[in-house]
């Protein structure tokens, strides 16, 4: 996973929003974009690095949402993005000018979003629609639609409390922009609540994943859930996690199982080695192990074990009859498994520090 360093040449004074940002930029910007910008301020105030998947996970957005937000603020000249062959290397927050320049097209195209973020999952759609934020009066007008009004009622029953304007905006986004049927949205809410997830931000992430997978019916959603649950939950159990996977964790597992075509047993072996190495579950660390195995064309548990056994084997020479000089010192014994763990830890730390 690539980590991106955020820098700025001007002092932020903590996580403070400049007044000019509030007066001229925040009012007309998409709410998801504002969340990303504020969190970037938070990161830069600590001089911390971050990754797109981690940022999406923290803010309960999709990686595509984050990519579009970065592109939007870049067009607004509030940040500068340095890329290398389309991959983001660093982001610099720029001083907020007194007046915002007009923007002809606030939403970047799908091609621009793909160039802005190399790790956005492939989708059958050209672009994921951006969510609009409507005022309470506008939401009231929308609720006059009988089907949408019924959807609001059903969701309140599942959640057990009245919906906020943010909740209603998300539901409207699923209903109008993602073109999800009321039946599919109802199943989505029921599915998330039954798994202990009552956050509408979480539901939005799941809905976008379904949108990317071209899931348009309840039957397709049930089949999708059934297909991934068995293997995904086996990986979660290997990590000692008795919970439903978050969207970012699903993306890792989808990469391993569907794109890299690793056998489930090999992924679980990598999970076990992760726990043994750092004493805690870590999807990025396991990803580092699997990348190393992929580079060495290791596709089975037996090959992985043989790979480590070869590292433990002593070196042999072509001419076994050659008399070797006798050295008057004790031969050292190396724990190659421990050395391998140290190497992976160092590689994992270097990626975080350097990127």
TrEMBL record:
Coiled-coil residues: none
Stored Pfam families: DnaB_2
DnaB/C C-terminal domain ranges (all copies): 155-224, 244-305
InterPro entries hit by this protein: DNA_replication_prd_bac, DnaB/C_C, DnaD, DnaD-like_sf
Residues spanning the membrane: none
Family: Belongs to the DnaB/DnaD family.
Protein name: DnaD domain protein
Organism this protein belongs to: Candidatus Anaerostipes excrementavium
């Amino acid at each position: 996973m690539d980590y991106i360093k955020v820098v700025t040449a001007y002092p932020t004074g903590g996580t403070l929003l400049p007044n000019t940002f509030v007066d001229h930029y925040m009012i007309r910007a998409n709410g998801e974009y504002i969340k990303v910008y504020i969190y970037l301020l938070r990161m830069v105030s600590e001089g911390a690095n971050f990754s797109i998947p981690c940022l999406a996970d923290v803010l309960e957005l999709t990686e595509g949402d984050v990519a579009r937000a970065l592109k939007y603020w870049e067009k607004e000249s509030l940040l500068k993005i340095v890329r290398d062959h389309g991959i983001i290397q660093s982001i610099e927050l720029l001083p907020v000018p007194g007046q915002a320049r007009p923007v002809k097209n606030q939403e970047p195209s799908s091609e621009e979003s793909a160039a802005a973020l190399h790790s956005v999952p492939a989708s059958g759609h050209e672009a994921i629609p951006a969510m609009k934020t409507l005022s309470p009066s506008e939401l009231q007008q929308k609720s006059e639609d009988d089907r949408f009004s019924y959807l609001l009622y059903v969701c309140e029953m599942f959640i057990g409390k009245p919906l906020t304007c943010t909740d209603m905006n998300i539901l409207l986004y699923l209903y109008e922009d993602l073109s999800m049927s009321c039946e599919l949205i109802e199943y989505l809410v029921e599915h998330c609540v039954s798994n202990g997830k009552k956050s509408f931000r979480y539901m939005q992430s799941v809905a976008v994943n379904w949108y990317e997978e071209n899931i348009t019916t309840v039957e397709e959603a049930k089949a999708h859930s059934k297909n991934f649950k068995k293997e995904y939950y086996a990986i979660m159990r290997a990590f000692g996690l008795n919970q439903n996977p978050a969207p970012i964790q699903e993306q890792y597992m989808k990469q391993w199982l569907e794109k890299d075509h690793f056998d489930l047993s090999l992924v679980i072996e990598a999970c076990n080695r992760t726990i043994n190495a750092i004493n805690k579950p870590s999807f990025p660390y396991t990803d580092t192990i699997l990348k190393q195995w992929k580079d060495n064309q290791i596709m089975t548990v037996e090959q992985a074990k043989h790979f480590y056994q070869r590292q433990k084997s002593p070196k042999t020479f072509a001419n076994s009859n050659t008399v070797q000089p006798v050295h008057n010192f004790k031969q050292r014994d190396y724990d190659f498994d421990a050395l391998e763990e140290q190497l992976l830890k160092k590689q994992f730390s270097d990626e975080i520090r350097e990127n």
